[in-house]
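lol ok so funny story. i was supposed to be doing the assay writeup but got distracted and ended up predicting the structure for this chain instead. priorities right. anyway since i did it might as well share w the group, maybe its usefull for someone
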Amino acid sequence: MKICLFLLSFAVPSLLIAYPTLAVETEKNQQHTHKLPQNLVEIPDLSEIELPATEAQLLTQESETDESATPAETKPSINEDSTNEGDIEIEVTGEKDTLPLSTPTYVIEKEEIEKQGSTSVADILKRMPGFAINDVGPGADIHTGTYYRGASINQSIFLINGRPINTNINTYHGATDLNSIPTEAIERVELYSGAASILYGSSSFGGVVNIITKEGSSIPKLNATAEFGSLSLNNQQASYAGAFGSVRYNFSFERFFTDNRYRVPEGAANRDADGYLFNADTATSTYFGNLVFDLNAKNTLSLDVTKLSSRRGLVYFGFPLQKDRLDHDGLNLGLSWKTLLGNGENSVLTTTLGYNQDYFSTYGPTVFRGVEYYRTGVLDTQQLTARIDHEWQLTPNNKLRWGLDLKNTDLNSETDSTRPDRIALNEIEDRNVFNTGLFAVNTWNITNAFQLDFGLRQSFDSQFGNYLNPSAGLRYAVTPSLAVRGSWTGGQRNPGLDQLYVYDTVHGWLPNPDLEPETGSSWTAGVDVNFSENLIGQFTYFGSSLDNRLGIINGRWENIGLVDTNGFEAALRWKIASRWSTFVNYTYTDAQIKTGIEKGLQLGMIPYSVAQAGISYASGGWQANLYTTYNSGARRAFFTNPGNTTTDFVPSFFNLDFSARVPITQTLGITVYLENLLDEQYERVNRTYSPGFTFRIGLTSNL
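and the output, tada:
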C-alpha cells in the first residue's frame, strides 16, 4: 500500500492540473499549431549531432529528407523521382516514444523496410541488433525460436502504437505472430529496453518492440506491390492513405502465399519420401485500417484495426513426419485519445482502450503402435486493455511519466485426441486472469550533460499476487561526441494460462498448475560515439539473471532453474558519400544454464554470435542493397532423432542477399530480391533447413 500511495502522490496533482484545463478549451486554443510537447531543457547528447547516435538508427535506415528541418509530426515526404519542385506532400507519421536515454533505442524506418523487401515483422527484426530469428523459409512458422538478447519471444513485449499485442499464451502456437501486421502499414519499428519494461510490463526481460503504423497524408496516396518468386511465392500489398477535413486515414492489405517446398538433406526434420520439406506451406491475409481525428488544436482521437487470417503447416523438430496444421485468426482494435494539457508544451495525457483476440486451432493425425489417430487443440484468447499515460514536465529539469495499466485475459481451450492413452487428457478449460499495473518513471537532468532516471511498477495479479519492480538508469555526455550510459531493471514474468492448465496436443506437453513466476533482473552498460561527421556507433554490454526459468522436463512444464545471460551488442552506421551508406551490427550472447540437469550448457536455439552488415546505393529512384548475415549456430537442445544429443550445435553459416529497384517511370518501378546468393542450404535449428538460393521479382506503384 505504501507503493500505491507513492504513485498516487504523483497521480492526484497531475489530474488536478489536467482536467480543469480540458474544461476551459476555447476557440483561441484551436488556433494554436498542433505540435508535440518538448522538454523545456534538453541535455546535449548525440541526438543533437547531425547523425543521431542516441537512437543508433542503422545508416541504411536514414531518410533522405532533412528531418531536422520540420517537426516530427509534419515531416515532408518528397518523391525523389519528381522534377516538379512544387510536388511536395505533408505526411503525418506516428510519434516516437519518449524514453530515458540510459538504454539504446533502435529504430528501423519504412525506407529501409522497403529496401529489404520485408514481408513480415520477423523479416524486419532479423536485421536489428540483438535479434536471432530461426524461421525456416519465407513466411514459415517461427515457433522454432525468436530471441532478443537471449530472451524468448514470450519474454519480450510487442506493441502496436504503444498498445500490447501479446496475450497470456506462451507455447509456440500462442506466441506473438510476427506475420500478423501488413508491412505496407508500418511506418517504423522501435526497439527499447531498460525503463521501457517499467512503462509497458514487468515481463520484458528481453526488450520492447513497438510497431508504429502510418497515419495518413495530406493528399490521397496509393501504394501497391505485386511479387512472384521461388517456392510458388505470391505476395500482393496495397495501401491507400489520405485525409478529408480534420480526419486522416490509412488502409492497408496484404496477401501472401508460398508452398515452401524444397529439397532438404537426409536426416532433416519433416523430410518426406521424395526428399522435400513437408507441411511448411503458408497462406496469410492481413488487413489494417487507421483513422485519426484532429478534434482541435489540443485533442486527437485515433482508431486502428488489424485483422489476420493465417493457414499454415507446422514444422517441428520431432520424428517421424510432422503433419499438424495451424489455423490462426486474429483481431486487434485500439482507440486512443491524446490531449495536450496546459499550454501544450509541458504535459500530455494519453488514454488508450484495446481489444485483442487470437484464435488458434491445431489439428492433425498421430500414429501410435502402428495405428493412426486424430488430435485437435483450440486456444481462444480474448484480452481487454486500458491504459492512462501522463507525461509531465514538472520543472525544466524534471520530467515525470506515470500511469495505470489494466489488462483482463480470458482463455477458452479445448483438447481432443482419439489416441487411447491420451483420451483422459481431453478437456475444456475456461480460465481468466486480471492484472493491474501502476507505473512511474522520473527523469532528472542533473546538469546539461548528466541525466538520471528512476522507475517503479507495482503490479496486482489475480493469480500471482502483488509484486514491485524497480528500474534505474543514467547517462553522462562526456563530450558532445561521447556519452556513457547504464541501466538496471527488475522483472517478473508469470506463466501463461496454457502452461498452467492446457495439455499441448502437438508436442504432448503436460501443463503444471504449480509453476512459479520467472523472476530476476536485466542490465545494460554502454557508450554512444560519434567517430566523425558521418560515422557513429553504439556499443552495449547487456546481461540478465533469471530464476525459475520455464522449460520442459520429461514432457511437462517445469521451473528449470537459474539462467544467467551476458552479451555484447554493437551497432555502427557510416554514410560513405551522398548516395552511399552502410551499417554493421554484431551481437554476442552467452545464455548459460546454472542449475538442473543441463547445468553449464548454453540455452537451446540461441547462437553465441550473430552479425549483419549492409551497403546501399540510392539515386534518382535507383536502388541497390547488399546484405550479409553470419550466425555461429545454436545448440539443438532436444531431439528424438537417433544419434543426436542435446549438446550438439548447429554448424555456423554465412548468408548473402541482394535487392534492387529499377525505376520505369516516376511512379512505377521493378523490384528484385535475390536471397542466399551463395546457395548454401544451412541448418537453422534442430535439423530444420532453410532453402538455398531464392528470388522475388515485383512491380511497385506509387500514385
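DSSP finds six helices and 35 strands in the chain. The mean pLDDT is 82.
back to the writeup now i swear
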